[in-house]
C-alpha cells in the first residue's frame, strides 16, 4: 500500500507569517503556576529518591 505524502508546496499552502510563528503567539504559564509545579516535581523526585511509593 502506497501512502501519498504531502508535498512541501501543499504543506506551505495557506501558511502566513502570523500562523507560521505560533510558538511566539502562545501565552506563557503564570509564574505562580510554574513555581507551584516546580515544587510538586521536586517533591516527587525526592519521594522517588527515598524509595517512597507514589
Summarize the structure.
The chain is mostly helical and 54 residues long.
Largest sheet: none
> What is the mean predicted local confidence, pLDDT?
79
What is the CA-atom radius of gyration, in angstroms?
21 Å
Succession of helices and strands: HHHH
Distance between the termini: 45 Å
List the helices and strands and how they pair.
Blueprint (H helix, E strand, L loop, with lengths): L7 H5 L4 H4 L1 H4 L5 H20 L4
Question: How would you portray this structure in words?
Answer:
The chain is mainly α and 54 residues long. It is elongated. Helix content is 61%, strand content 0%. It has 4 helices and no strands.
Features:
4 helices, 54 residues, 61% helix, mainly alpha, 0% strand, elongated
